[in-house]
């Protein structure tokens, strides 16, 4: 087969969840399928721009850096998606094209579309105007797609809610390659221990304000600090106000943006990982914490129960979150039980299985 995949997100310097998804998917597809040819499409904004080094010399890979003058793809995206990219798909005579991040070009080629989540359908994520545009384009792509892949059953249900035929959608869990437990605690802690860890942008969807409020209720009863690790977002003012109101300046640490090395270090030394998000398409960060042997507390909504399995404590409000944190930091037997369940649970998410299911969809 001649399979096209749009890999623009791989170009970013700081890898996001979507870029890690694309990298893991493409590399696992290549490992599992020796006879298929993969065409990797992405934008180049100048004629002299070089192609990506990633997989550049792989015999089954053909890079397709498609010239897009200036910032055409950003300022006139419909020209890119409806005319420029479709020309190259036609020229390469593809059997199938995969849009791994919510959008598809206007093409007669059979298409597969990955939907990670529909958060901007149900809450403000990127601002009202941009969310409206993204919702319109996503709906158009979902109706156009030959088949849709969702990363969780929760996201599949959301797609059905938006009018997509249930039989047109397949849930394919992405793979996960966690850390090697034998390599844990390799360096001294960068932040004062002990601590409870949250990782993510300080934005309303991540429910950080509720986390700080719950922590305030128990902060004088436990020795752990709370570390909020991630980029500042729309909830920063609210979070800082709760910290000030409760006199938590010495017990809550806000790190700002962190490097991959710091991320690893924070996991290695955390007592508990808390992720009280209001909505997630999957919640890969929950598996990431489990891979470092950190017991997890997360929300009981959207896809998070799928991501957590039986290896985490599920909470629904500030009261249950406060109770869960207070219990988990003091109950060593519960900590160990969750750690062992976590190690077992993450082994069920493999890129090999993801690639096998995806190839079945491509061939269908």
TrEMBL record:
InterPro entries in the record: Glyco_trans_1, Glyco_trans_4-like_N
Gene3D superfamilies from the UniProt entry: Glycogen Phosphorylase B
Top-level lineage group: Bacteria
Record GO biological process: lipopolysaccharide biosynthetic process
Domain (Glycosyl transferase family) ranges: 190-345
Glycosyltransferase subfamily 4-like N-terminal domain span: 17-175
Annotated keywords: Transferase
A molecular function GO annotation: glycosyltransferase activity
Name by which UniProt lists this protein: Glycosyltransferase family 1 protein
Organism: Alteromonas sediminis
């Amino acid at each position: 087969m001649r399979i096209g995949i749009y890999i623009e997100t791989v170009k970013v310097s700081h890898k996001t969840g979507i870029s890690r998804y694309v990298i893991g998917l493409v590399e696992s597809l290549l490992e599992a399928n020796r006879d298929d040819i993969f065409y990797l499409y992405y934008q180049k904004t100048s004629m002299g721009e070089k192609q990506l080094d990633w997989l550049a010399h792989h015999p089954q890979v053909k890079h397709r850096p498609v010239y897009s003058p200036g910032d055409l793809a950003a300022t006139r995206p419909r020209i890119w998606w409806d005319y420029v990219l479709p020309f190259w798909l036609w020229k390469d005579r593809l059997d199938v094209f995969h849009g791994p991040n919510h959008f598809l070009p206007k093409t007669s080629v059979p298409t597969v579309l990955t939907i990670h989540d529909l958060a901007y359908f149900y809450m403000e994520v990127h601002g009202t105007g941009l969310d409206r545009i993204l919702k319109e384009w996503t709906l158009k792509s979902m109706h156009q797609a030959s088949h849709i892949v969702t990363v969780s059953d929760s996201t599949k249900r959301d797609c059905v809610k938006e009018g997509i035929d249930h039989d047109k959608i397949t849930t394919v869990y992405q793979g996960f390659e966690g850390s090697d437990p034998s390599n844990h605690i390799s360096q001294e802690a960068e932040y004062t221990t002990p601590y409870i860890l949250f990782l993510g942008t300080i934005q309303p969807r991540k429910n950080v304000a509720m986390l700080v409020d719950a922590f305030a209720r128990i902060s004088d009863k436990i020795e752990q600090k709370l570390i909020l690790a991630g980029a500042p977002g729309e909830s920063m003012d609210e979070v800082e106000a709760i910290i000030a109101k409760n006199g938590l300046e010495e017990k809550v640490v806000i790190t700002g943006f962190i490097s991959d090395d710091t991320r690893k270090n924070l996991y290695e030394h955390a007592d508990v990982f808390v992720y009280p998000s209001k909505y997630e398409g999957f919640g890969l960060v929950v598996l990431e914490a489990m891979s470092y042997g950190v017991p997890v507390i997360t929300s009981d909504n959207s896809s998070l129960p799928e991501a957590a399995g039986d290896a985490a404590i599920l909470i629904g409000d500030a009261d249950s979150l406060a109770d869960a944190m207070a219990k988990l930091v003091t109950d060593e037997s519960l900590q160990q039980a969750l750690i062992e369940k976590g190690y077992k649970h993450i082994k069920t998410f493999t890129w090999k299985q993801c690639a096998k299911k995806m190839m079945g969809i491509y061939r269908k």
